[in-house]
């Protein structure tokens, strides 16, 4: 498979999770009305999805290290199809929760295994460029999904959003069946034995540099996740807009992610990865700081309230491709497992933000801005700690 096709297939797989996360956010009110539940209960359809995403992310990479990348991705897409159809037909709120859990358990495989597949194919600067190009395409999902979902929900009801996800999953199954290569030779696969699995997880989770690095990635994404999971309250409650106006939040995110990814890909060979990461983290911190100061001094309104979000997303997309390449390079013989642990921790934090943190903050623009600032500061501090630990280890050896 050539570079362009590989990028598009991996980006499409990575888009599935965010699409299933964001597309139904404008439907929260309609779901609550149909099932006679309040918004805090509807929020749990997102939290349960994210917990399923995080939990199964621990296993998809490991399974792909044992059975190969292609069969694991295809199996997960079939499971996602079942969850999508079930959600569209859910006769009660309990069934909707169940099928959202099924969706969550399966949605992360494409991203987790796709990262490992990418690292099977390319190394070094080429890997950083590939991740940047994937992010460029992948970043369309958070912008397109809520806009499409908002219009579908308005004109055809909230169930039509899940029928859209059904069609999307069928298309991905067909695409992967025809185009996705197997990149892990049988000779390179890990034995699926309990003691080997436990030893590999222990090796990853006791590596201080790796744990600090994946935590830095998770918190960088956490500032983004806070606004995503608070989208309905932020757009409708804080900004005073309608359910078809979600583009005011998601277009700055997509613009920032696209711009940062383009810059990363263009300068991958000219700027050292460490320098690109530092620059991205600095821009993230600057955006979060401006966001906090603005909300402290003024009443949130468009377009000013969303401009710092663009800056944050720009910096995040500059930093994350390099951070991911460096982190997965820690364990070159078990990239699937390393990708699993990284994605699981990232999505577990997303789930915690969605279910616990967002409900405490989403009624206030200032509190959301402070949450983003804390996430950016933690990300920068943890990344510095991971690199300091790496340098200390090299000095000792």
Automatic annotation (TrEMBL):
<dbReference type="Pfam" id="PF07690">
    <property type="entry name" value="MFS_1"/>
</dbReference>
<dbReference type="InterPro" id="IPR020846">
    <property type="entry name" value="MFS_dom"/>
</dbReference>
<feature type="transmembrane region" description="Helical">
    <location>
        <begin position="72"/>
        <end position="91"/>
    </location>
</feature>
<feature type="transmembrane region" description="Helical">
    <location>
        <begin position="210"/>
        <end position="239"/>
    </location>
</feature>
<dbReference type="GO" id="GO:0005886">
    <property type="term" value="C:plasma membrane"/>
</dbReference>
<dbReference type="InterPro" id="IPR004812">
    <property type="entry name" value="Efflux_drug-R_Bcr/CmlA"/>
</dbReference>
<dbReference type="GO" id="GO:0042910">
    <property type="term" value="F:xenobiotic transmembrane transporter activity"/>
</dbReference>
<dbReference type="InterPro" id="IPR036259">
    <property type="entry name" value="MFS_trans_sf"/>
</dbReference>
<feature type="transmembrane region" description="Helical">
    <location>
        <begin position="161"/>
        <end position="180"/>
    </location>
</feature>
<keyword id="KW-1133">Transmembrane helix</keyword>
<protein>
    <recommendedName>
        <fullName>Bcr/CflA family efflux transporter</fullName>
    </recommendedName>
</protein>
<feature type="transmembrane region" description="Helical">
    <location>
        <begin position="309"/>
        <end position="331"/>
    </location>
</feature>
<dbReference type="InterPro" id="IPR011701">
    <property type="entry name" value="MFS"/>
</dbReference>
<feature type="transmembrane region" description="Helical">
    <location>
        <begin position="277"/>
        <end position="297"/>
    </location>
</feature>
<comment type="similarity">
    <text>Belongs to the major facilitator superfamily. Bcr/CmlA family.</text>
</comment>
<dbReference type="GO" id="GO:1990961">
    <property type="term" value="P:xenobiotic detoxification by transmembrane export across the plasma membrane"/>
</dbReference>
<keyword id="KW-0997">Cell inner membrane</keyword>
<feature type="transmembrane region" description="Helical">
    <location>
        <begin position="245"/>
        <end position="265"/>
    </location>
</feature>
<keyword id="KW-0812">Transmembrane</keyword>
<feature type="domain" description="Major facilitator superfamily (MFS) profile">
    <location>
        <begin position="6"/>
        <end position="389"/>
    </location>
</feature>
<feature type="transmembrane region" description="Helical">
    <location>
        <begin position="368"/>
        <end position="385"/>
    </location>
</feature>
<feature type="transmembrane region" description="Helical">
    <location>
        <begin position="343"/>
        <end position="362"/>
    </location>
</feature>
<keyword id="KW-1003">Cell membrane</keyword>
<keyword id="KW-0472">Membrane</keyword>
<keyword id="KW-0813">Transport</keyword>
<dbReference type="GO" id="GO:0015385">
    <property type="term" value="F:sodium:proton antiporter activity"/>
</dbReference>
<feature type="transmembrane region" description="Helical">
    <location>
        <begin position="46"/>
        <end position="63"/>
    </location>
</feature>
């Amino acid at each position: 498979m050539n570079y362009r096709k590989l990028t598009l297939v991996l980006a499409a797989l990575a888009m599935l999770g965010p699409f299933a996360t964001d597309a139904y956010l404008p439907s929260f009110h309609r779901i609550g009305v149909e099932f006679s539940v309040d918004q805090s209960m509807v929020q749990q359809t997102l939290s349960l999805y994210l917990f399923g995403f995080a939990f199964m992310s621990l296993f998809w990479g490991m399974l792909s290290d044992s059975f190969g990348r292609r069969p694991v991705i295809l199996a997960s897409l079939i499971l996602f199809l079942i969850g999508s159809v079930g959600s569209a037909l859910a006769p009660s709120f309990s069934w909707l929760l169940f099928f959202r859990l099924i969706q969550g358990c399966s949605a992360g495989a494409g991203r987790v295994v796709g990262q490992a597949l990418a690292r099977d194919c390319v190394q070094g600067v080429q890997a950083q460029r590939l991740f940047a190009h994937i992010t460029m395409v992948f970043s369309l999902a958070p912008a397109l999904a809520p806009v499409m979902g908002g219009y579908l929900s308005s004109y055809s009801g909230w169930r039509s959003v899940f029928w859209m996800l059904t069609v999307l999953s069928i298309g991905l199954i067909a695409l992967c069946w025809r185009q996705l290569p197997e990149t892990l030779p049988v000779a390179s696969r890990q034995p699926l034995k309990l003691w080997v699995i436990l030893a590999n997880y222990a090796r990853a989770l006791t590596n201080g540099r790796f744990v600090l690095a994946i935590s830095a990635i998770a918190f960088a994404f956490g500032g983004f996740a806070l606004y995503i999971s608070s989208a309905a309250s932020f757009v409708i409650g804080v900004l005073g807009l309608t359910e078809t106006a979600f583009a005011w939040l998601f277009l700055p995110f997509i613009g920032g992610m696209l711009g940062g990814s383009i810059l990363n890909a263009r300068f991958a060979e000219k700027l050292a990865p460490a320098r690109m990461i530092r620059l991205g983290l600095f821009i993230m911190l600057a955006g979060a700081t401006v966001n906090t100061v603005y909300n402290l001094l003024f009443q949130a309104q468009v377009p000013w309230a969303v401009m710092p979000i663009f800056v944050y997303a720009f910096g995040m997309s500059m930093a994350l491709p390099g951070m991911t390449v460096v982190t997965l390079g820690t364990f070159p013989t078990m990239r699937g497992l390393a990708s699993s642990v990284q994605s699981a921790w990232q999505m577990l934090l997303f789930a915690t933000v969605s279910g616990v943190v967002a409900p405490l903050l989403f009624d206030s623009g200032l509190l959301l801005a402070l949450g983003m600032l804390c996430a950016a500061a933690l990300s920068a501090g943890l990344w510095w700690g991971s690199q300091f630990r790496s340098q200390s280890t090299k000095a000792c050896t």
